Every structure is written in C-alpha cells, then in structure tokens.
Amino acid sequence: MFGKSINVCIFLWILIFVSVVLAGEAQCRAIVETTYTSNVGQQIPDGPAGGGSGTPLLDTINVPLGFIVSGVEVYLNISMVDFTSDLIVRLTSPGGTQLGLAWVGGGGIPATNIIGWFPTDFTPHDNMDQWIGEYTEGDWVLDCRDYSNNGIGTLNSWQLKITYDDSVATEQESWGQIKALFR
Ligand SMILES: [Ca+2]
Which residues surround ligand 1, an ion (CB under 5 A)? Predict the structure, then answer.
C-alpha cells in the first residue's frame, strides 16, 4: 500500500519533470524578428548632367547574430521634394546578394519622399525572398545613387528587419547564441 503511493509519487514527479522540459523546449524554438536602425542624415549626391550614376552614398548595418534568414524587410526614410525616380537604392547582404529596392524610373514609389517599408508599403525592384536561407551575420550595405541632375534626396535613416528561427544556429555560432537556445 505504502509502496504503491511512492510509485505514484515518483510517476507524478517524472510527469512534472517531462512537462517542464517540454514547455522549455517549446519556448526556446521561436521565429524571432530583430530590427536594426541607422540614422544617417546625409544627402545622396546629385546625379551628373547627361545621365549616369552620381557618387554613391553607402551605409552599413552590422548584424551580430549568426542565424539563417527567413525574411527581410527594409524601411527607407528618404526626403526628396521631387524626382525620387532619379534614385536607385540597393541592399547587399553579408553573403554578397545585392537586390534593388527603389529603382530609377519610379514604379510604385511616391514622387515626393520615400518613407515606408519594402516590400510591405512599396514593391521592391527585386524579389527580397532571394535573401532567405542566407546567414544573418555581417555587414548589410545600403547603396543609394542618383542618376539625374536636379532633385536631391536625403537619406535620413533606414531600418533592417530580419526574421529568423533562433533555434537554428549556424556554424558561426558563438557561446552567446548557444545560450539563446536555452533561455
Ligand atoms: Ca537628382
């Protein structure tokens, strides 16, 4: 009789232990979104008369997390009174994949100011899903160029929102990321 209740007690403790472990396991597997901001506040040099690319304005956001990209969104805040269609804005991933966001000639971008998210508010020139499966870690470089004189824009700021599964660390993992798996 006494032995039976000890067995039940042990069984209950095992059940509680397994539940806690499984709950912890569920919590540490999550799709995570991290947003980085760069406050640039610089003019994009005007394009030359007669066409061709103006001097590029480059800006880098360094992502220290080593995971696999499952989605990317980019927020641009560019002030420009007119002729946003002069601009080409591209972003290059740490893996070297360069994709066009805003593109010379307009196409879904307001004539005055480019303030909003690609691809939510504005349709990007290239399909941003091409970054899916690459590593998050490293330099993401924004390249803004003006291809026509008159009409000058200012890159006030930009944001990079990266989505990843934080249970899938890459081989570039560090102790910090291993800890993230057990939090
Ligand atoms: Ca211009």
Answer: 46-47, 86, 146, 148, 151
